[in-house]
Backbone:
């Protein structure tokens, strides 16, 4: 039977092509889908049918998905780390240029000359007026990068090539990300220190309980007058009331963001884009391909790559049937699962077990078929969240 994949946003065809039509049906409406593919669609736990085994976010941020509740239901949530990082980096480059030069005002001014028919006169007028649109250069200015993951590290690199000094802050920097980072990026010991020494500050961290409203009145009061804040991460990271006060009080010179809001639209000191950081053909393809391949590998093999709530785990498929077991990360459960197999004389060929926070996940390759009643015995064990028979014998 073909597996059904429910799409809740437009997902690039290049990604959907990774789900072959003889094994998968893809549509925006299914009552009992096996998996969900989405982008920024706000997903509520009550809207996830009981049939769903996995959720793939074709993108980076998973704050639109009820990840903690999915964990409780044993549903791995995948994302596409780094797949749209270049797209965001390029838009941040545009943001820095928009924040340093009179580009938007200059373009709007030129539009006001539309009724002039005399080219020479037009030239005279604009040459006299262009002083209004004078900017300053980025070279030699200091950029603070908050969050040095996939996007932040590329932004830091890009800013260095523009001749900027770069200061970074990331309290949870992964070893992999640290390797990617140029040694020219200077480290700020804390956020206030970074905010106090930059001409431009750009945010590239996820919205979590710990980062919601992180950029607050206290931090904004630390900035040097004339600082420009760029937010291509998430609206919720910046406390909007404090932001408006900092702009009104001329503490911040400008706010450039990918997240419009009624309180900010129409202000001279704010440039807003309609959440287009990842809206390039390349990023949409990359994200969709990564998400679709991860979902497929999970549905067909139980393997997990780039999950935000489950451990990464890949077990090479050799032969036999495969069981995937998700359980609470407490002692004795795996032993009880294996005892059930032993009681049924089912031989285990290969096995992998990993845990992450409160979840433990196991792949168990068995030599012979396990019946539904055997699976039900496992499901009945205290602490077992779900059991699935995968592959040829499923
Ligand atoms: N505008 C867009 O269209 C767009 C596109 C992609 C991603 N995003 C947003 O950007 C975020 C970052 O994306 P990414 O791909 O770089 O993710 P990433 O996971 O590679 O990097 C995020 C980094 O933020 C760091 N971090 C966590 N808490 C922090 C804190 N309190 N202070 C400083 N750093 C902290 C992490 O350690 C990590 O290194 C996403 O979570 C998403 O919300 C927006
Ligand atoms: O977190 C992300 O990847 C971005 O916000 C992109 O969102 P989108 O896929 O809806 O463009």
Residues:
């Amino acid at each position: 039977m073909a597996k059904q994949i429910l799409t809740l946003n437009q997902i690039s065809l290049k990604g959907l092509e990774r789900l072959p039509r003889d094994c998968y049906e893809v549509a925006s409406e299914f009552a009992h889908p096996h998996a969900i593919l989405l982008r920024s669609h706000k997903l509520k736990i009550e809207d996830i049918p009981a049939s769903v085994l996995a959720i793939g976010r074709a993108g980076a941020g998973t704050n639109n998905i009820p990840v903690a509740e999915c964990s409780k239901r044993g549903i791995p949530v995948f994302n596409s780390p780094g797949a749209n990082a270049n797209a965001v980096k390029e838009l941040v480059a545009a943001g820095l240029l928009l924040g340093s030069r009179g580009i938007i005002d200059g373009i709007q001014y030129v539009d006001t000359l539309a009724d002039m028919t005399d080219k020479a006169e037009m030239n005279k007028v604009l040459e006299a007026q262009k002083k209004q649109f004078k900017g300053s250069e980025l070279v030699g200015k200091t950029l603070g990068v908050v969050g040095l993951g996939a996007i932040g590290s590329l932004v830091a690199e890009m800013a260095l090539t523009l001749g900027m000094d770069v200061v970074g802050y990331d309290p949870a920097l992964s070893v992999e990300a640290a390797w990617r980072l140029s040694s020219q990026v200077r480290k700020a010991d804390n956020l206030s220190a970074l905010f106090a020494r930059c001409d431009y500050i750009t945010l590239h961290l996820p919205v979590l309980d710990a980062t919601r409203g992180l950029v607050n009145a206290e931090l904004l009061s630390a900035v040097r007058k004339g600082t420009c804040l760029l937010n291509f991460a998430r609206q919720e990271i910046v406390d909007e009331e404090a932001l408006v006060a900092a702009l009104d009080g001329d503490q911040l010179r400008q706010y450039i963001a990918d997240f419009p809001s009624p309180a900010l639209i129409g202000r001279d000191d704010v440039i807003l884009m309609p959440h287009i950081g990842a809206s390039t053909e390349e990023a949409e393809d990359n994200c969709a391909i990564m998400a679709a391949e991860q979902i497929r590998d999970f549905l067909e093999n139980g393997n997990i790559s780039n999950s935000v709530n489950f451990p990464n785990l890949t077990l090479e498929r050799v032969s036999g049937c495969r069981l995937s077991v998700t359980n609470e990360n407490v002692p004795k459960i795996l032993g009880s699962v294996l005892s059930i197999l032993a009681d049924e004389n089912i031989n285990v060929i290969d096995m992998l077990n990993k845990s992450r926070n409160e979840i433990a996940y196991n792949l168990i390759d068995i030599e012979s078929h396990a019946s539904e009643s055997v699976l039900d015995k496992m499901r009945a064990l205290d602490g077992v969240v779900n059991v699935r028979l995968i592959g040829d014998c499923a």
In short: Residues 60-61, 81, 84-85, 88, 146-152, 169-173, 177, 204-207, 210-211, 232-234, 258, 275, 277-278 surround nicotinamide-adenine-dinucleotide (ligand 1) (CB under 6 Å).
